[in-house]
Every structure is written in structure tokens, then in C-alpha cells.
UniProtKB/TrEMBL annotation:
Residues 1-24 form the signal peptide. Keywords: Signal. This is SurA-like protein. It comes from the Bacteria. It comes from Salana multivorans.
């Protein structure tokens, strides 16, 4: 009897480790269609945006990085895309227009520029509708510290209710 109890107690840490393993890995800002977007990638894009004199706030950066994955996947499926060279040329043009010397851009920044180039080449309304649909159907999970995501409204503010409770509840508890 004691051996069974000891075995059950020994299984608790194993079960806990398995359950925690299902959570997002540390440093994950979002997951889009199974593609992990890291905090480091967001920081690299924010740095590139700032160097290009573009809005570099967290919601803008995260929205741009998150949107790139499903839109590029759908675009490629539909026969559209953009080369790395086209993307770098767009970034260099943006840098020059903003009075900045072109520099080495991060890989996620180049991917965003590829998305912009690809989207600018699509004029067919049917294809545009398919891209919007692909974005709406994407499996997007945002780390709660960055906010919430809804396919129709986009990125929403972070909600810390799961830590401190909602407005009046938190005040009443304090």
C-alpha cells in the first residue's frame, strides 16, 4: 500500500512537468500557424523600425510580425511572393526617404517587407479576399503579456485580470 502511495506521489512532478511542457516556451511572443515568434524577433523588428524612423510601439510591431506569417503562406499558395532583394530594396528606399543610411535589416524585418511588396502586387479582389480569409482563419496565439488577439479586431490590450482580478474586484480585495 505504501509503495503505491509513494509511486503516486512520485508521478505528480512528472505529470506537472508534462502539463507545463504544453505551455509556450519562454521567450515566445506569439505562435502563428505553428510558427514561433520570439521576443528577440520582436525586439529586432522594433529596433529596425526605430532606426527607420517608423512607429516602433509593441502593438504595431507585434501586429506586423504576426500578420506576415499567414499572409505570406496564403500568398505563396496562391502563386504570389516577393524576393529578398525586392524587400531589401523597399527597406533601403524607406531608409533613404526617412533620412537614414540603409543598414543590415533583421530577418523578420525583411519578411515584413516581403509581405508589403507581395501585397502591393495583388490587385485582384478575389485574391485579396482569399488573403483576408486566410488571415481570419489563422491559428494565432499571443502571449498574454503582449495582449489579446481577435481576427476581426486585431491585437487588443493586455489584460492582467488573471493575476489581479478585474477593476472593482481588485479594488474591493485590496
Amino acid at each position: 500500500m505504501r509503495l503505491r502511495t509513494a509511486a503516486r506521489v512520485a508521478l505528480v512532478p512528472v505529470a506537472l512537468a508534462l502539463a507545463l511542457g504544453a505551455c509556450a516556451r519562454p521567450g515566445t511572443a506569439a505562435t502563428v500557424n505553428g510558427v514561433r515568434i520570439t521576443d528577440a524577433e520582436l525586439a529586432a523588428v522594433a529596433s529596425d523600425y526605430a532606426r527607420l524612423n517608423l512607429p516602433a510601439d509593441a502593438p504595431t510591431v507585434l501586429s506586423d510580425v504576426v500578420a506576415t506569417v499567414p499572409l505570406m503562406e496564403a500568398g505563396e499558395r496562391l502563386g504570389f511572393g516577393a524576393s529578398r532583394e525586392q524587400a531589401v530594396a523597399l527597406l533601403d528606399q524607406t531608409a533613404t526617404a526617412n533620412g537614414v543610411e540603409p543598414f543590415e535589416y533583421s530577418e523578420p524585418m525583411i519578411a515584413i517587407a516581403q509581405r508589403v511588396v507581395m501585397l502591393s502586387s495583388i490587385e485582384d479582389e478575389q485574391t485579396q479576399a482569399e488573403l483576408v480569409s486566410a488571415f481570419g482563419e489563422a491559428d494565432i496565439t499571443i502571449n498574454p503579456r503582449f495582449g489579446t488577439f481577435d481576427a476581426t479586431t486585431g491585437l487588443g490590450p493586455a489584460s492582467w485580470e488573471w493575476i489581479i482580478g478585474s477593476g472593482s474586484d481588485a479594488l474591493a480585495a485590496g
